[in-house]
Input
Amino acid sequence: MYRHEVRDFEGWRAAARPLLAGAVRPEDVEWSDWRERRLADTSGGDSRPPDNSPRTPVISRRLLHLLEDLACYRDPHRWEFMYRLTWRVLNQNHDLLDNDADPDVRTARSWEKAIQRDVHKMHAFVRFHETDTGDGGKRYVAWFEPAHEILRSAVPFFLKRFPNMRWMIATPDGAAHWDGDHVEFIDSPKSSVPRADTTHSLWRTYYRNICNVARINPAVMQRDMPKRYWQHLPEAGEIKSLIHEGGVKTHRRLTTPATPDDLRIPQAIARSLDRIAPRADSPLTCKLCDLWRHATQAVVGEGPADAAIMLVGEQPGNEEDLEGRPFVGPAGQMLDTILLRAGLNRGELFVTNSVKHFKWEPRGKRRLHKRPDAQEVRACSTWLDREISNVAPRVIVALGATAIRAVTGSSAKIEEARQTILRHQRGALVICTYHPSSILRGEGDRKAELMQALEDDLRRAKRLLTE
Ligand code: URA
Output
């Protein structure tokens, strides 16, 4: 009998690897969780791996990702379950994960779902409290009680969202500290988190303003935001009164036309939240031109940090500005359709824009896109250039005239720019092509022609990776 006490996924992996290599059967291994301390005495068993391992087990990426999720599931039997599942995939059925009727696969899927839900909840419900560091600086601290041990899985989201704040998120399983440069995981006591502060009231105000009372459905709300999260949510104090006000406000909203002020309130508050931790060298707090004044937030690029292909658009549109992500509106949907036709997976690309703030002008109740001028594109080139240098793509696809200018400096017409492949100063090959928005504006044959052209150019980009 082999015995292992495991603390985390890495520990399990290190212990499981030699056992799997030796094809040790699941019933011959006893796993325990370090929290249980069940193995106070291990003298009765052999915890060393078998010698003369005949082969190194090869675990697919798909299984590995699943195991990473399962390791977060708060169940003392998770380690033995993970070993049994892996052993069965390696020794009984390589396609086991495709068999939805298998009880182990069903358990794995339900655990995986629970973990993903829990991570999502943590992203949505963590609230930072402002604290002084003692050296004149600020640190933002949050306490959160996830159902599972998901701190490490949830942290990348906060690193991306709040790169310029110094923050700590404490959970019953430990804490994550971010000092602006690197993240550290430690144990941490709950008592160090303060109760009320200025950020707290900012959240309450923010919540009151973004809350669409006309759409509050108390039952659905409680299902998505269970009451156990409420004690750590500053805005929870607003929920009751908002539900109460709902009826009155709904009526008023339905009978009064929206004004430009309706747009300004959330924008102003979002900017106040941004100012919590201003830093001169971040696009999130950039004021190199005036576009930040009327935008909800800066929209930076997203995608794998080592993506081989980078797509560069013009600037965020209305939906992108509100959601904080590039190409999620109508142009993004057109782009997704054509990427699919070209055999490219958006999840593998880095998608960004030449300009990070939405430039718009009011037209009735709507915010109409306005093309950024050369000076605004130049000001924002700092951030685009940083993304290009960080991601170091092998191919850049410049979508539309603004992106062509931002990436290559050329003001050539698209038809002409499409004819050549250029080289960016940081080494990437550059393909110039049409912007999905121009396809949306096209009609009939012209629309089909532009779609085909963009698809062909994206295929060319893909081919360049293998040439
Ligand atoms: N148009 C762009 O250029 N970028 C977006 O993110 C959305 C629309």
Summary: The chain is about 45% helix and 15% strand. Confidence is low (pLDDT under 50) at residues 38-46, 188-196, 253-280. The pocket of uracil is lined by residues 313-317, 320, 326-327, 329, 331-332, 353, 437 (CB under 6 Å).
